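In practice, a research group might receive sequence data for several interacting partners and want a quick structural hypothesis before committing to experiments. The following worked case mirrors that situation: the sequences arrive first, and a predicted assembly follows.
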Amino acid sequence: MASINYDQIKEAATHHPKPQDIKYTYGTAGFRMRADLLDSVVFRVGILAALRSKKLDSKFLGVMVTASHNPERDNGIKLVDPYGDMLEQSWEEYATQLANSQTEDELVEVIKRIVVENNIDETKEANVVYARDTRPSGPALVMALEDGLKSVGSEVIDFGIKTTPQLHYMTCCLNTKGTEKSYGDPSELGYYKKLAEAFRKAVDGKPRISALYVDCANGVGAPKLSELARHVGDDILEVIVANDDTRTQGKLNHLCGADYVKTCQRLPLGMDIEKGKRGASLDGDADRIVFYFVDEDGTFKLLDGDKIAALAASFVIDLVKTAGVEGVKVGVVQTAYANGSATNYLKNVMKVPVSCVSTGVKHLHHEATKYDIGVYFEANGHGTVLFSPEALKTISSAKCETAEQEDALKRLRALTDLINQTVGDALSDMLLVEAILVNKQWTLKDWDQAYTDLPSRLVKVVVSDRHIFKGTNAERTLIEPVGLQEKIDALVGKYKDGRSFVRPSGTEDVVRVYAEAATREECDELAYKVSGLVYDEAGGTGGRPEEFL
Ligand code: G16
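A structural hypothesis for the assembly, expressed as tokens:
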């Protein structure tokens, strides 16, 4: 292949000018903001993906156009490394530099710097695959992405509309094809078949449980879940798809979806499930899931990412023990948003090692690879279970002496295929939870009994500049604005089991305030006071946070 043609890049870039006066930041999961401001960013991310592919010996890089849980007017871009994990963090800075280079000349300078610093062979082929969710702004942004890719002469595969985890899966499959690490068939059909087959094995011989109603946030999860359910078969899993309107403008994530349900702690619009029925919500790109039900007394009960982590960890630990592969150790990774009761249960009742890292799947995933089996979930429902190569080897080569051992081993092996190893995946996680509940013949209420969440509250505070907030200690302690943390601590000290922390969101233009305490009243009061403090002392704009009724 010829070297990079910088004149070609300059010419293409004139069609995707960077708006003046905007500073783009690479957030928790890539760039994310109002879609009408993203054209130049997406063009440049195309260039970055191609450069990284060249650097990685022409491996396939993935690019997903999505804004996940954000409102429909937003869009964004997530980058997927060859084995399905998020973009290597040292390259986030390059993404930021490319996105913020104002002129075509500056852009070319940054590209040349990346090439030199990484010793990139310009003549290597670049391979990039991409997909998008159902947002109306998606097609135009994909065209900008293609222009960026073409300007560097990249080979491309357009996977059309997919969930984010499907793109992660396919990127990994393409790069492992024909090797001993082959992850599967790099197609949507291959994805469904792999999951469906593994689910069948995981629930083999156990009776089906009641139907699961799934709120798909009116997003890409709706058609994909229907397709998956068809492959699994309703003889073993009955899924009722709700909020599947991907065509009517304004409906995506509107009063529905995993983020809404978790934040507001109430049923989504369009899912009026009766007492005793089982519900779940996906987010806009189907990488998060939360479960819920309405108790006999009418209380809404949420089973979030923390509950999924505890369920998955305890099931896996039991299987490991019964299968006789006890050398394989399980650990759990959480963030500061994990409910205090969840952490306490895992550490002190289940006696599992627990690590706490900064928000963002990229941080959790990395930490989880340190365990033989690493269970990582954010409280918002984003997560998965990772099996280390050694654990996989032990599980696949283990010999069994009893029928009980054989059964446990069969189910454990099925889980290694059922659980998406590349990233948190709502569809795969849904099947994982269902497989565990089927095996245990549990209702959601049975699952919920393990521990009782401390009342918690998540508040969004709008400030003039959220970038002035800087944290440390896995984002649990603010170091800037100076003095604010001491004031938060003084408030927290007044409440039994009180805990509160503040951090800037990396996906929305808000500051997030988290609070928990022994009772609902105390928790709400603490959340109200801390968010008021943030608003008053750190440039709150718009309405001052209100008391919760
Ligand atoms: C993304 C990340 C998650 C993170 C969430 C919220 O999720 O992948 O790890 O928890 O953003 O991040 P923040 O609090 O910084 O806004 P998604 O599903 O929106 O892509």
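Before designing any experiment, note the following. Residues 28-29, 68-69, 283, 287-288, 359-361, 378, 380, 382, 505-508, 512 surround 1,6-di-O-phosphono-alpha-D-glucopyranose (CB under 6 Å). DSSP finds 18 helices and 19 strands in the chain.
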